[in-house]
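so my prof wants the structure for this chain in the tokens format not the other one, which i didnt know existed until like an hour ago. anyway here's the sequence
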Amino acid sequence: MFVKKLIKYFSCFIGIIISFSINAQTPELGNSSHEKWEFVLEDTGDILQMAIPAIAGLTTILKKDWKGTKQFALSYGTGFIVTHSLKKIVKKELPEGRNLFDAFPSGHTTSAFSGASFIQRRYGWKYGKWAYLGAAVVGGSRMEGPDGWHDHWDVLAGALVGIGSTYSFTTPYAKEYLEIGFISQNNTYLLGLRYKF
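here's what i got, hopefully its the right format
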């Protein structure tokens, strides 16, 4: 119930951000080969790359899922460290001759897919599919935004780092509960207790 409300409010928030982005002042397109939607896509990706993991972490806190909070911190932190280490090791140049050498892997994509895969792994596909959709938008925004910041290999690697770090530390969420069973047959009575955590 709570997670449904969280997703509903998150969807409204993203809709508002997109509408503001569409109406926002963009650079003069007369001297540019870029269209307005490219700027909107890039802005949306910038927001989602932080919003998705923020929702993942916030969900663990609001559900008082402290084990999940620890798992999220470990998986997100690992993804961050691996991504930025690879950027320093590989030193791949960003497209469009920007003379910056930190393209591989995409940090935006790692962040978004780390949050999305955590939501899916911890709380299931019912919520994870929407988080993955948002993460895919982030990946697309890194390739299709104005001038493109990454190529498909950078984005794919970022997604793999995010998902891999999540699956290394995250287990599915199961609420603690107590089952009581009772069986009687031929003057024999059996009471069973099962505690699942």
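also thought this was worth mentioning. Confidence is low (pLDDT under 50) at residues 18-31.
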